[in-house]
Amino acid sequence: MLATIPVLAIVAVLVFLMLRLTPGDPAAILAGDAANTEQIAKIREGLGLDRPLIVQFGIWARDIVSGDLGESFYFKMKVTALIGQRLEATLSLATLTILFAVSTAVPLGVLAAWRFGGWFDRMLMGFSVMGFSIPVFVLAYILIWVVSLKLGWLPVQGYKPISEGFWPFLRHLILPSITLAVIYVALIARVTRASVLEALGEDYIRTARAKGLPESRVLIRHALANAAIPIVTVIGIGIGLLIGGVVVTESVYAIPGLGRLTVDAVLARDFPTIQGVILFFSVVYVVVNLLVDLSYVFFDPRIRY
Amino acid sequence: MKMLRLTAASLCVASWLVFPAAAGAQGTVLRTVPHSNLAVLDPIWTTAYMSRNHGYMIYDTLFGTDEKGQIKPQMVEEWSVSPDKRLWTFKLRKGLEFHDGKPVTSEDVVPSIARWAKRDTLGQVLDGFIERMDAPAPDTFRLFLKEPCGFVLEALGKPSSNVPFIMPKRIAETDAFKQIEEHIGSGPYVFKRDEFKPGALAVYLKNAKYVPRKEPPSGTTGGKRVFIDRIEWVLALRDAQTQVIALQKGEIDMIERVPFEQIVPLRAEKSIDLVIKDPIGFQYIGRFNHLHPPFNNPKVRLAAIAAFWDQEAFLKAQIGVKDLYKTCASMFTCGTTYATTAGSEIQSKSNMRKAQTLLKESGYDGTPVVILKPTDIATINKLPDVGAQLLRQAGFKVDVQAMDWQTMVGRRAKKDAPDKGGWNLFFTAVVAPDTWNPIANFGLSGACDKAWFGWACDEKLEQLRAKFARSTDEAEKKKLASELQARGFEIGTHMPVGEYVAPSAVRKGVKGLVVGPGDFYWNIRKEN
Known about the structure:
The complex is a heterodimer.
Chain A: H1 4-21, H2 26-31, H3 37-47, H4 53-65, H5 79-114, H6 119-133, H7 136-150, H8 166-200, H9 203-210, H10 215-226, H11 228-252, H12 258-267, H13 271-299
Helix pairs in contact in A: 1-13, 5-6, 5-8, 5-11, 5-13, 6-8, 7-8, 7-11, 8-10, 8-11, 9-10, 11-12, 11-13, 12-13
Chain B: H1 2-18, E1 29-33, H2 49-58, E2 60-61, E3 63-65, E4 71-73, E5 76-81, E6 87-92, H3 106-119, H4 121-129, E7 130-137, E8 140-145, H5 152-156, E9 165-166, H6 169-172, E10 189-191, E11 201-206, E12 230-234, H7 240-249, E13 254-255, H8 263-267, E14 272-275, E15 282-288, H9 298-307, H10 311-318, E16 325-326, H11 345-348, H12 352-362, E17 369-374, H13 383-394, E18 398-403, H14 405-412, E19 425-431, H15 459-470, H16 474-491, E20 494-500, E21 504-507, E22 510-511, E23 525-526
Parallel strand pairs in B: 1-12, 1-13, 17-18, 17-19
Antiparallel strand pairs in B: 2-9, 3-4, 5-6, 6-8, 7-8, 10-11, 11-12, 13-21, 14-21, 15-19, 15-20, 16-20, 22-23
Helix pairs in contact in B: 3-4, 9-12, 15-16
């Protein structure tokens, strides 16, 4: 747990420096097209960007320690408030995506391992290659065109918070979740298949079958339970990768989440927001990995920390 | 009993599942996708067009500009000028009220003009003429000028950034270099601050207390009648393809700017109308950096202008839809008061051989021309490639550097040498009000360090602009504008490379869009 502090400190320093080295001037962006150099300089001064880099970093680091991520240059709001506004949409999208991916990919992977070499196994492997290869935005456009425009089953875009009703909330998230989940279904199904396949070759499986246990019990209680650690690990990594995926998905489906906020902040060179969001994502990533590590104890009692 | 309770509970859960909680009566709702994101809510602090459009929703102006470019009164009822043209007296019309219920008085007008005059280019020039302002009565304010000024009404009625919006005194007294915190105006819509989600949604409600003028709406003038109860700017919907599909499906009612590649397929769509709200449109310009070689040499700039004689090449590549563009060699937008061909022979009647000869005569040493290319702005991203090819044909060495728009915006503000992060040439699109008269036209400023990016430095240009500012005779103003443009071409401040209009796309039932230089939401009706 203590190891997270240096990780976050390194992320903070790197993000701060990289942003300052990236071309683009937040003051010029805020000033608009018709502004002159003098007006831009005034805005730069107002944002504190004319101060030495070390002073700017010192102020930011001091604020972070006191739990303040600063104020957005672009939106004139506290970064914590901006993250709070966007969190529900991203969290909902990520949760639905992971739920959909895990509930689909794990059974598919187990079945493919059970029927190793058969038509189902080959089909799943073919699907996996496709899932890895299709860019998220291409899949999104195809789904929108077929499901929303031609069939008219689901909305094209937008997001409804859960407070406006569960069904409106869900129907706005079905297509984005499927779009985002496809690559994770491919990834998790492949890893599940490989892990279960390895477990099925073990002596304890032969023993279980010799005892006359039904095949479903052999597969779930013995093979899958023993193959769980690599699967859980890849799900954890998947949650980290999801952060990259939501950026594109939220843009195409117009979901006002953290992914879209990141894009807006990067385009506007809104340093405090970019720094805040990346720091937040880092914390999420560290926490998810910690939870994955802790879950190993549950799946394999031999593991101790 | 137990059964009844269970049934009731189930019904409650089912209703929450199926029906939105906030499905209250909202009246007529218009959902629209603006042309960009709304970030800054202070239209005086920034020149961003989205902030200007936000301003038109909630604030009103003293004067406005109609669709023909004529200045007409808006909040002002009547006005007079003293015989020596140094005292202007304005009387406000009755019934003006801010969204907080307080009446609009001249006490609000004076600080509003003062704050705007500190930020706006035209306002700063006007400020130079103003000796003082006062408010002798709640409905009367006066401008005392040091000397006669030829553009008082043009300045107070200017339609584009920065627009002199009238705010309550306590808000208008905010430092001009700090953003305002309250967003209360007296305009046709009320801003719903509590529903504003930056980058996601901005909501405006009908201002039921707004008293529109009697005249029909035209540009930013006339009766601003509101027929829509709630306007939603769907800021999160930024993907062009999804915008079009959402419009086809009826999830949104309007797209302010349709990408050019979508025009032809949308024209075939029966449920959608393409509307040109701003027939004067935009002007494309190429801007030289006058500080660094090779364009610190006027002869080299002239060679480049001659090379850019083929405006059609730019327009065909960038827009492609013939009826949306036109060639125009005037630095003042074609079709407006001061449009002229004076001095434009170098561009309009030249050819590539002329450019090659001029370049040879200039002593050009082969310094590469660094052209900034913003890849993410679909309305201008092809201009640099066409420009580069024409320059190569003329004998220039060219280095086209691709970047996103915001990088370009930051970079063009830098005065460094091109090989140290600076630049030589960029292209952009400018809305007509920013080019249609000699003072608003920032490309024609020769004020050196204070001039627009590129920092043209020319005493004669400044003298002509000053004369224009002082002139109160329309014939003389036209003559001065011609001279100014001729001088602009003579020293090569920048070059116009064509003009275009940008259609909006609306669902068939959306009617009454106001024609003028901007995106205005009064007079719009939504019919089923």
